[in-house]
Design a protein that fits this description.
By secondary structure, the chain is of the alpha+beta class. It has three domains: about 290 residues, alpha-galactosidase from lactobacil brevis (Beta-galactosidase, Chain A, domain 5, Distorted Sandwich); about 220 residues, TIM Barrel (Alpha-Beta Barrel), CATH 3.20.20.70; about 80 residues, Immunoglobulin-like. The protein contains 13 helices and 42 strands. The strands form nine sheets. Strands 5, 6, 7, 8, 12, 13, 15, 16, 20 and 21 form a ten-stranded antiparallel β-sheet that branches. An eight-stranded parallel barrel has the order 22-23-24-30-31-32-33-34, surrounded by six helices. Strand 10 and strand 11 form a beta hairpin. The longest helix is centred in the C-terminal third of the chain and has 22 residues. The chain is globular. The protein starts with a strand and ends with a strand.
Length: about 700
């Protein structure tokens, strides 16, 4: 037996892997600061490959201990540096099947986070049916020592339409109980698993999660699976400790089965892990830096503030008559782009199952859509338009114009969902139709901003040109990403907002490419705050497009409330601004101006939660952004008899501070305790909802 190790770093993040002649490569140490002096052994395999022919080495529901994973042996590794990224490629082989597995790690310089992806090649003589391939698998380690699961808290989230980004922080043992495995002298057969369903990657459990040490609130791992379709993450336990596995689609969860013929290769979806010794806030800061590295291009190349005519306003019924006064008032409020949302392509309001041609309606725009888009340009704003590229209504002429092979199918029948067919972007006719649509809108109407929506799901996928429905869906998902890359190549100055009934597809396969993320369709201003605040766990602050929808029927404090919700992300403005009084519009204009001034700090900040992660029914809640010289904090009070609220601001412990409220209004009374706590009091006693944003810095 020969055992060695690989040590790799990007200058801050340190990873050690065990290699040997009688065991697979495994993660033996992870440290956010120092090169580990202790290596964990024996550890679970770095790569797990589940197949129909070979299955698991020991029966369980876990993705650990696969038969092929246990037989993989180290054959080599290479390191490199490409621009901003440090890379490590580790190669293994299973001699029994001829399966080779390469894991590519990459870490941005100065960031304590790593992305991993696994490529499986069949160099054997027989085809292999893949059921699951891990992108990353490791024991939970602090340096080279196992972490005690009893000391950990799990942060996990879920979303649904109108109720996105609902996060909880709970003891890990409440969901992964201690089974006394040592007494039974066996490892766990069950697992804690979170997985997506169908093609809404974030329409249920979220692909982001974290574990933090509950005792000292220092050690923390945060992860994300970066895919716009099927994914899973798993926590499980052996007698040696707890383990984490990150995967793309699987047979069990997504009906994914991939036939790997000899001389063929399959690459898993990317997954990333951030590590910190500064608790959840520190891990989120590292993941935030990692997400910016994944994007590469700053978001601020696009417009600062978007006005969109949909939310609580035209609601899919735009016309020239309705839009022209809104365009004028949006410019007056300070908007930089005016986005025409749904309905612009149909003469009536019953357009849901007739979409797909994407030609402007002559009935809605008697003098042509160009009358409206020209007005937007004359007011100095960019032209935006809503599009739902992946669907064709069953009544649309395009349903017959495109071949059957351009649609998702099951057993020779097109998949129908809510009166719509689902395009398959693997087919050139589907992509050509949408390429022509985008190019035409850019050329004919000067569109510089697209809001790309996605309001249906694809079921488990398609069996056309694939070994399984899940494999067909994965192929479509990857083809859609490739199509988006093509748009960005042809139109590099176009800004694209990602939307899927709000945030039902809020993942970094898409957000590494696109500019903004709609965070919700929630129309109730009182229910939006926890959605907006918690979005920063999954999305960069500068990408999180929060609605601010002031209305002429609102009181001044209600207007301030909804404007505060958009203040610390990317403000997406709506509402009948044209019907407002001068005083009301002045409040909107003031908030937009303040938001624009904050954007340079927002795009370099990371989020923190001074009153803890907000829960759905919290009456007081808050979120902060840590900028270089100061903190930006928004507080919402949703109407409650409790009139006091405490914020923990440890950055300023032992210092005198200066607090500045950023918009006009009454704010809250404050009292600072130099031990790191700020006490807020609502002295009005009115119990009416109120929200405000303020800055904190050293006096």
């Amino acid at each position: 037996m020969v055992t060695n190790s690989i040590s790799w770093t990007n200058g801050t993040f340190h990873l050690a892997l065990r290699t040997g002649t009688d065991h697979p490569v495994s993660v033996a140490a992870l440290d956010p600061r120092d090169e580990p002096g202790t290596l964990f052994e024996p550890a679970p395999a770095l790569v797990e490959i589940l197949t129909v022919q070979h299955g698991r080495a020991r029966t369980s529901q876990r993705y650990g201990e696969s038969a092929i994973g246990a037989r993989l042996r180290y054959t080599g590794h290479q390191t490199g540096k490409d621009a901003h990224w440090h890379t490590l490629t580790v190669q293994q082989r299973d001699d029994e099947t001829g399966i080779e597995a390469d894991v590519v790690f990459r870490a941005a310089a100065g960031v304590r986070a790593v992305q991993a992806v696994t490529t499986v090649r069949n160099t054997g003589q027989e085809p292999v049916q893949l059921q699951a391939v891990t992108s990353f698998a490791a024991p939970l380690l602090t340096g080279g020592r196992a972490v005690d699961p009893a000391a950990l808290r799990l942060a996990s989230g879920s979303s649904q339409w109108l109720g996105e980004n609902q996060w909880t922080l709970e003891p890990l043992r409440s969901v992964l109980p201690d089974l006394n495995l040592g007494f039974h002298d066996q490892d766990q057969r069950g697992h804690l698993i979170r997985a997506s369903t169908s093609s809404w990657s974030t329409g249920g459990p979220l692909p982001t999660g974290a574990l933090v040490d509950a005792d000292d609130d220092r050690w923390c791992w945060m992860w994300q699976v970066e895919h716009n379709g099927g994914w899973a993450w798993e926590l499980s336990e052996t007698r040696r400790g707890a383990n984490l596995a990150l995967l793309g689609p699987t047979d069990d969860q997504h009906q994914w089965l991939h036939l790997l013929q000899p001389d063929q290769a399959f690459t898993s979806v990317p997954a990333s892990l951030a590590v910190s010794d500064d608790g959840l806030q520190g891990a989120l800061a590292e993941m935030t830096s990692h997400r910016r590295a994944l994007r590469g291009t700053p978001v601020t190349t696009g417009p600062a503030v978007i006005y969109n005519d949909f939310m609580n306003t035209l609601m899919g019924d735009p016309t020239t008559e309705k839009l022209l006064p809104l365009i004028k008032s949006a410019k007056s409020a300070g908007a930089d782009v005016f986005c025409i949302d749904a309905g612009w392509y149909d003469d009536g309001t019953d357009w849901w199952d007739a979409v797909g041609e994407w030609e402007p309606s002559a009935g809605r725009f008697p003098n042509g859509l160009s009358e409206v888009t020209d007005a937007i340009g004359l007011h100095g704003m960019g032209v935006g338009i809503w599009l739902e590229p992946e669907v064709i209504g069953v009544r649309s002429p395009m349903a017959d114009a495109l071949p059957d092979a351009a649609f998702l199918q099951r057993n020779g029948t097109r998949v129908v969902e809510h009166g719509r067919y689902h395009l398959d972007f693997r087919h050139p006719a589907a992509r050509a139709h949408l390429d022509q649509t985008v190019d035409r809108l850019v050329h004919d109407f000067g569109v510089s901003y697209f809001k790309l929506d996605y309001n249906i799901t694809a079921g488990p996928g398609t069996d056309v040109g694939a070994n399984s429905t899940g494999a067909g869906l994965l192929g479509h998902n990857r083809a859609y990403l490739d199509w988006l890359d093509g748009i960005k190549t042809r139109h590099p100055l176009v800004t694209i907002e990602n939307c899927a009934s709000g945030a039902m597809r809020q993942d970094y396969a898409l957000l590494s490419r696109l500019d903004l993320q709609s965070t919700s369709d929630q129309q109730d201003l009182l229910r939006y705050p926890p959605i907006a605040a918690n979005a920063f766990v999954s999305v960069l602050p500068e990408q999180a497009a929060h609605w601010s929808y002031p209305q002429p029927g609102m009181g001044d404090d209600e207007i301030r409330f909804t404007m505060a919700t958009g203040m610390l992300g990317r403000m997406c403005l709506s509402g009948f601004l044209d019907r407002m009084t001068p005083g009301q519009l002045a409040l909107v204009r003031e908030a937009v101006s303040v938001h624009k001034a904050l954007l340079p700090e927002i795009e370099a900040s990371s989020a923190f939660y001074p009153s803890g992660i907000p829960l759905w029914d919290d009456q007081w809640l808050s979120v902060g952004l840590r900028a270089s010289e100061r903190d930006l904090v928004t507080v919402w009070q949703r109407g409650h008899e409790q009139n006091e609220f405490t914020l923990h601001l440890p950055r300023w412990t032992g210092q005198d501070i200066t607090i500045r409220w950023l918009v006009s209004g009454r704010g809250f009374e404050t009292k600072w305790d130099p031990s790191g706590y700020l006490f807020l009091t609502d002295t009005t006693g009115s119990r009416h909802p109120y929200a405000a944003t303020f800055t904190v810095q050293a006096a």
